[in-house]
Specification:
about 200 residues, alpha/beta, Cytidylate kinase-like family protein, P-loop_NTPase
């Protein structure tokens, strides 16, 4: 069965967002990443700024703080409300049109569909550090810290809401090392597997 939806989870600095954007462009399908923040904000009633900081990442304090976050009368935390709004937006997008969705636990949210190709993109440390230093104009130590913090928060969010392990190969259809394969080959493999 052809895969209408491509989800891309990625390590920070692996180029996963760029690869996803290129795949969507080359296939002529919609691309969703930060451009769904306003939809999530609208569904949750929270500000787009809050969503941008929290929709894909756990709080900076980690899993323990996540579990003990303040809850409303129904038992939901603000993070739970953001996740639920994000889930609804992703389900709606998947029904609406073929697309590439970056991050936001989309692989798990769409796990019951047969027309989804789930991809995890990772990379080797030297290449990721170089990419981050170039993109964000930071020193090597800062790049390493950014990578560690972002990936830790992505992992905590994913593990908390999916009961799966972020980056574990069995959660995805494809796991690609962008440092070893290069971006072009990653794009070609994803497009070939979506047919």
């Amino acid at each position: 069965m052809a895969k209408r939806i491509i989800t891309i989870s990625r390590e920070f600095g692996s180029g996963g967002r760029f690869i996803g954007e290129e795949v969507a462009r080359k296939l002529g399908i919609a691309y969703y990443d930060k451009n769904i923040i306003s939809q999530i904000a609208e569904k949750s009633g929270l500000s787009p700024e809050y969503i941008q900081e929290n929709a894909e990442l756990s709080p900076k304090k980690g899993l323990f703080a996540y579990a003990l976050a303040g809850r409303d009368i129904t038992g939901k935390s603000v993070e739970d409300m953001v996740y639920e709004a994000q889930r609804k937006v992703i389900l709606d997008l998947a029904k609406k049109e073929p697309c590439v969705i970056i991050g936001r636990n989309a692989d798990y949210i769409l796990k019951d569909r047969d027309d989804v190709l789930n991809v995890f993109i990772h990379g080797d440390m030297p290449e990721k550090i170089q990419r981050i230093t170039d993109l964000y104009n930071v020193e090597k130590q800062k790049a390493v810290k950014m990578m560690e913090d972002t990936d830790k928060r992505r992992k905590t969010n994913y593990n908390f809401y999916t009961d799966q392990n972020w980056g574990k190969a069995s959660n995805y259809t494809l796991c690609l090392n962008s440092s070893q394969l290069g971006y072009d080959r990653c794009e070609k493999i994803i497009m070939e597997c979506s047919k």
